[in-house]
Specification:
The complex is a heterodimer of chains A (108) and B (887).
Chain A lengths: L7 H13 L5 H12 L5 H14 L2 E8 L7 E7 L1 H19 L8
Antiparallel strand pairs in A: 1-2
Helix pairs in contact in A: 1-2, 1-3
Chain B lengths: L5 H10 L2 H21 L1 H14 L9 H6 L2 H18 L1 H29 L11 E10 L2 E3 L6 E2 L2 H8 L3 E16 L7 E9 L3 H4 L4 E4 L9 E5 H8 L8 E5 L3 E10 L12 E4 H7 L13 E9 L5 H22 L2 E9 L20 H28 L1 H13 L4 H38 L11 H27 L3 H6 L9 H34 L9 E5 L10 H13 L4 E7 L9 E8 L8 E8 L3 H5 L3 E4 L15 E6 H7 L4 H4 L3 E4 L2 E9 L14 E5 L5 E6 L5 H14 L7 E3 H6 L3 H35 L1 H9 L4 H35 L10 H28 L2 H5 L3
Parallel strand pairs in B: 5-10, 7-9, 16-21, 18-20
Antiparallel strand pairs in B: 1-2, 1-11, 1-12, 3-11, 4-5, 4-8, 4-11, 6-9, 7-10, 8-9, 13-22, 13-23, 14-22, 15-16, 15-19, 17-20, 18-21, 19-20
Classes of the chains: A alpha+beta (108), B alpha+beta (887).
Chain lengths: 108, 887
């Protein structure tokens, strides 16, 4: 079985796509991440991650309608695929199981 | 709504993949809008920065595909359309191709001529390091051009000893002689290309031997001959060991020790025979030359320097050595001197310097001149193309409109029109190659050159050829291409064509330029011929008509008195009916003097006051044969000769000498004692001034000495029909002087030989100007034909309304003829100036005559008129029904 790899930032973008569900397009993802991470990001980083994951089959996209503030350009909406969801689940499982193995450490 | 910054956006659009562009652009814009509300400057910055961040492989489109979209079929289409256009406008294409091919042929031939002239002496392996020595002479601090490259025999050994940088040195002295194979003394030959040279000669110059040993060549008593001379004299390719009997400056039998390849046509030294100079120096008068061999300047000296030697330092050393030997001598005469060098490869094109063995006649000026003429011819042809292409623009406007409407870019259209120009130029160039190859023998004969197709083997030639096609394609095609591609599709498709007139002024000025060039060339040719006629018809003060000249015998039996046999021969010739008188002399008019640069002064004057004169020797009857007019004193025939060895040298002079010496009148000069060189002399009489040399030369101070055994016998005939007399003289000559070759010439013809170069120039010039005019008229023809075609309907209506054929011809011709007249007006000052410059080469010159100018202008106008009216008459005579019914 082919090993699906996913980078840290990609994982964040994928989570955001999944969270926004049918409303995920470039700027929305960017803003969502910026407000959650509380730091400024460049839109190009989001696009790179999206395109890469689209190639890997984690997300798929479609064009939306024309809106005024975009100078007549259509939005491209992304939705998570089954594969994408499974990757997220696996990541979550992995982290969760590892987290649970942390012994109780007292920092007192 | 605020739109994002323009340039970054354009950049993004240029590089970004099309399937991503919309999304990225949209997102970027949206981000920008939001940022902009907060901070304008930062938003702009951030936008640009973001765009830059997309500049990475994932987002950059593949440029390869976009540039290659179907381009081959596009170019194929260009060529197809270009070809169809050429074929469908046969008349214009033919005019263009004929004009361009003639222009290119002229250029090709001229370039070939120029390349040949530049190739002189470049075949020598040591060409970089070989120099010819030139002696300089100055008086009162004023350096003077000596105009020759002759030096004394002692110069070479002194330089070889004193200048370590010299690795090879040779003296060259030319001679002419009669010669025969010792085994066949009955077959006598004459050769005028003998050179006496030092042993280094063969090492310095690249004249390879085909037989014999180089190291044993040029030993005393040996001779080297050229391959063709070997065949001529011995009928044998390898006559090594044979004996050749030579009678020139030496009378001696030489053993052949080698054969060299015939001297190439592009060598400034021309010779059939090489002889050791040692023999000449030991066995002739040179053995007793006064002043240790520094006295007689009869040798051309060549040196070869070490590679990288400092030429300036060498010249300084040589001058120092020269002055050590000659400084005192020069100082005594109030002069000073030095030694200069001239690179071997520079000799041919500076042929105003005379030297031993050098009979080539190159000139930088002629070469440059013909380069310019060649370019002018080509440019006139290019102008034709431009004019015809722009005038026909209106016919192509719909095509351009449609092409643009379906999406052709402007540079694609430019490429298309350039490919039409390229097609025309390539066709013309191909024809030009063939024409040049065919015409080369004709040109060779006409201007007496030896151009060959060898040059075409040189890759550089083809590079230049391709470059010429390229440049002429661009020159011809660029402007029309810009004009044609500038049309706005909406306007031209609507059929509005009013603005095509905008290029009329350009077309008109180009026609004017063409005619200025043609008229200048034609008037220039006429001026050149005018000057040639003037020189030929000039009153020389000498009568060369019906004068036959015969070379005196070279070979005489031992112990014969040369003077006596010559005088006997002259008397016998005098007895032939039809002969008025015969006379002997040491040179002939137009063949120079025996002594160039003789210092002549009154015996009371300081040596420093001497004037430069020239001297030659004549006998007592020479003056009456050539019709010299005595103006004072006696002549040689009037005086009795004393046997006193102390008696002064009796000389005749011309009026110029009298004036230059400062006598108030010719009569005053008679019987005056003078010094000529270091000889004590006495003027016995004065001749009226005459021209001994060509009209290039100003009048010289001529001194005649007396001789009884001249090298030439001149015979004045009473009849023009000379063949019978010549055969009688020949019989006499052959009986008297066995072992010699009877050679004769007519004095006027040999004198005209001096103008050979001028005639060559005139011929080339007239052909070039004829071609230029022809091409210009071709262009005019095309323009008129086109105008007539454009105005067919107008002409038809005018005829219907009652205009006569004459009115129509006038209507069509008037505009063009005006241009020719303007061209003429502009051509007058240009011709006047350039031809005045050219005429300054002559001491005796015609003025640029307005008659000639008017003739050239009239001729151009006439040819233009014929060209124009031919076409316009055709239009005027056409039946108006044909032009009008089709609407």
């Amino acid at each position: 079985m082919k090993q699906h790899s996913i980078g840290e930032f990609e994982e964040l973008v994928l989570l955001m796509v999944a969270a926004l569900h049918d409303e995920a397009y470039g700027v929305a993802i960017l803003e969502g991440l910026e407000s959650n991470l509380d730091k400024s990001l460049n839109i190009s980083a989001v696009h790179v991650a999206l395109k890469r994951m689209e190639d890997k089959g984690f997300v798929k996209s479609r064009f939306g309608g024309i809106t005024e503030e975009r100078g007549g350009r259509r939005k491209r909406y992304y939705v998570i695929t089954a594969l994408g969801k499974r990757i997220l689940d696996e990541q979550y499982e992995l982290r969760n199981s590892l987290y649970k193995r942390i012994p109780k450490i007292s920092f007192g | 709504m605020i739109s994002p910054p323009r340039h970054p956006l354009a950049f993004l659009r240029w590089f970004c993949r099309e399937d991503y562009l919309e999304e990225i652009e949209g997102d970027l814009t949206e981000v920008f809008q939001k940022e902009y509300a907060k901070d304008t400057r930062k938003a702009n910055w951030k936008f640009s920065w973001s765009v830059l961040r997309y500049f990475r492989p994932r987002f950059i489109k593949s440029f390869r595909n976009s540039f290659q979209t179907d381009s081959t079929s596009m170019y194929k289409n260009y060529l197809k359309v270009a070809y169809r256009n050429l074929v469908s406008n046969k008349g214009f294409s033919i005019i263009n191709i004929i004009g361009l091919s003639i222009g290119m042929t002229c250029c090709l031939l001229i370039f070939q001529f120029v390349a040949f002239e530049y190739s002189f002496d470049r075949f020598h392996e040591n060409k970089e390091n070989v120099y010819r020595l030139l002696q300089t002479y100055g008086q009162k601090g004023q350096p003077m051009e000596l105009g020759h490259a002759y030096t004394a025999q002692a110069l070479a050994p002194a330089m070889e000893e004193g200048v370590p940088e010299i690795v090879g040195i040779t003296r060259v002295s030319s001679d002419d002689a009669v010669l025969f194979d010792a085994k066949h003394p009955e077959n006598v030959f004459e050769d005028d290309a003998l050179l006496y040279v030092d042993k280094d000669f063969l090492k310095m110059f690249t004249f390879p031997l085909t037989a014999g040993d180089v190291n044993k060549a040029l030993e005393p008593g040996t001779i080297l001959i050229s391959a063709s001379a070997a065949r001529k004299y011995f009928n044998n390719d390898n006559p090594v060991g044979e004996v050749l009997d030579v009678t020139g400056n030496l009378e001696k039998a030489f053993t052949v020790t080698g054969v060299f390849k015939d001297v190439p046509a592009n060598s400034h030294l021309k010779f059939d025979i090489l002889l050791p100079i040692e023999d000449l120096l030991r066995e002739s008068d040179y053995a007793e030359e006064p002043e240790g061999g520094w006295s007689w300047n009869n040798f051309t000296t060549f040196i070869q320097l070490q590679p990288g030697a400092d030429l300036h330092a060498v010249e300084k050393k040589m001058t120092a050595i020269y002055l050590r030997h000659r400084g005192a001598f020069l100082e005594e005469r109030g002069g000073t001197g030095g030694i200069n060098t001239q690179p071997l490869t520079d000799i041919h094109l500076n042929s105003e310097v005379s030297a031993a063995g050098n009979i080539a006649t190159g000139s930088y000026r002629t070469v440059y001149f013909f380069l310019v003429v060649g370019f002018i011819t080509l440019i006139i042809a290019l102008v034709n193309y431009i004019n015809l292409a722009t005038s026909r623009a209106v016919n192509r406007s719909r095509e351009v409109g449609v092409r643009k409407a379906v999406g052709a870019k402007r540079n694609q259209l430019i490429a298309q029109f350039l490919s039409e120009s390229a097609l025309t130029n390539i066709a013309a160039a191909t024809i030009a190659l063939v024409l040049a190859a065919v015409l080369m023998p004709v040109v060779n004969e006409m201007i007496e050159t030896q151009l060959s197709l060898d040059l075409w083997m040189n890759p550089k030639f083809w590079l230049a050829f391709v470059l010429t096609i390229l440049i002429s394609t661009l020159l011809a095609g660029l402007y029309p291409a810009f004009v044609l591609s500038s049309f706005k599709p909406a306007t031209v498709l609507k059929g509005r064509t009013s603005y095509f007139g905008g290029h009329l002024w350009l077309r008109r000025s180009l026609v004017v330029v063409q005619f200025v060039a043609s008229i200048v060339l034609v008037a220039g040719t006429a001026t050149v011929f005018n000057q040639l006629n003037f020189m030929r018809g000039m009153d020389l003060g000498l009568n060369l008509e019906k004068v036959l000249t015969v070379n005196s015998p070279r070979v005489l039996p031992e112990n014969t008195n040369r003077a006596q046999v010559t005088q006997t021969f002259i008397q016998q010739v005098n007895a032939i009916p039809g002969v008025i008188q015969a006379a002997g002399s040491s040179t002939l008019p137009g063949k120079g003097f025996n002594w160039n640069g003789a210092a002549v002064r009154k015996s009371t004057d300081e040596p420093a006051a001497a004037i430069r004169g020239v001297a030659t020797y004549i006998d007592s009857t020479f003056a009456s044969v050539y019709g010299l007019t005595p103006v004072a004193g006696k002549e040689f025939k009037d005086i009795t000769w004393s046997d006193d060895p102390e008696a002064p040298w009796m000389v005749m002079v011309n009026e110029s000498t009298v004036k230059s010496l400062g006598y108030t009148s010719s009569a005053d000069a008679v019987d005056q004692p003078v010094f000529i060189g270091d000889y004590r002399a006495q003027i016995i009489g004065v001749y009226k001034d005459f021209n001994w040399s060509s009209a290039h030369e100003a009048r010289q101070n001529i001194v005649f000495g007396h001789t009884s055994n001249g090298r030439y016998v001149s015979v004045k005939l009473s009849v023009a029909e000379a063949s019978e007399i010549i055969s009688k003289i020949r019989t006499l000559y052959e009986a008297q002087f066995p072992g010699n070759i009877f050679q004769y010439a007519f004095a006027d013809e040999s004198f005209d030989q001096q103008y050979k170069n001028d005639q060559r120039f005139a011929k080339l010039f007239s052909v070039a100007s004829g071609m230029a005019t022809f091409i210009a008229c071709l262009g005019l023809l095309g323009l008129v034909a086109f105008t007539a075609q454009q105005r067919t309907k107008e002409i038809g209506m005018r005829k219907v309304l009652g205009a006569s054929a004459v009115d129509i011809v006038a209507l069509l011709s008037k505009d063009f003829l005006k241009l020719v007249v303007v061209g003429f007006i502009l051509a007058v000052p240009i011709t006047w100036y350039t031809m005045d410059q050219w005429l300054n080469n002559f001491a005796y010159r015609e003025e640029v005559s307005f008659g000639v100018l008017a003739l050239a202008g009239g001729l151009a106008l006439l040819i233009a008129l014929i060209t124009v009216s031919w076409q316009s008459l055709k239009a005027a005579l056409a039946n108006p029904v044909n032009s009008l019914r089709s609407e």
